[in-house]
Amino acid sequence: MVMTECSDGTTSVTITLVLVLSTQAVTHFNQMWKKLLTSRKFTTITPDNLQKYFPGYFRTPSEQLEYERLILYGSKNKIPVSTQSMAPYNYHCNVDCRRRYGPFHNMRFKRQASTGSGNNDDFMHACCVTNVFFETPDLKPSVNGDNRNLLHLPGMRQVFKVENCSQAVGCTGCRCMHEQALASAVVIKQHIPPSLADQMDDLEIDLFYFNGCCKCVNYG
Predict the structure, then answer these.
(1) Which of 90, 118, 144, 218 has the fewest other C-beta atoms within 10 Å?
(2) Which of 157, 51, 166, 47 lies closest to 113 in space, CA to CA?
(3) How large is the C-alpha radius of gyration of the chain?
(4) Boundaries of domain holding 124
(5) Helix (H) or strand (E) holding 205
(6) Residue 193 and residue 119 share a domain
(7) Is the pLDDT of residue 190 over 80?
(8) Residue 152: closest CA among 140, 137, 134, 162
(9) Mean pLDDT to the nearest integer, 115-126
(10) Is 203 part of any domain?
């Protein structure tokens, strides 16, 4: 009888211990699953996550229209320098900027498709005409020469300001030249096929050159 009573007590303790451990295991599993789901929510490539981790890189069509409006307004709103800001080293301009040159010879014109408004404007300066537009490339060489896949989502793309530089035929006072503007962009890591990129960890930042400010550079 003593052995039976002792045995019944051990069985009861064992069952209780198993129930406690089982409950803890289920609780732990639920916590881990909840953590996994929560983690995935913030690591999947979505518009909200892109805005959270890469603010300012992606714009909707309406945001892009406003961005272009501000860019073009700033380009048109020229601020003249004062006479105190003139070059101090007796530089002389050998271009008559009052002269109307024409027609213009397009040096490097390669307009690319844009999902922006297509807004652009022409600005004349000495021998040059600058045309401002916006492009949104899918594939572009980085500053290191590697072709990189830029990330875009439907209704949310990365858009870059580009300037096209043209030179007047017969102008001999200066040569129109592009400055190369440096810009950063969100790209898909090189070892990941673009069609399989769906996690924020699949992305990184790289640097690119775009045709920037058109300069009328004196020579002769």
Answers:
(1) 90
(2) 157
(3) 31
(4) 47-76+95-218
(5) strand 203-218
(6) yes
(7) yes
(8) 137
(9) 57
(10) yes
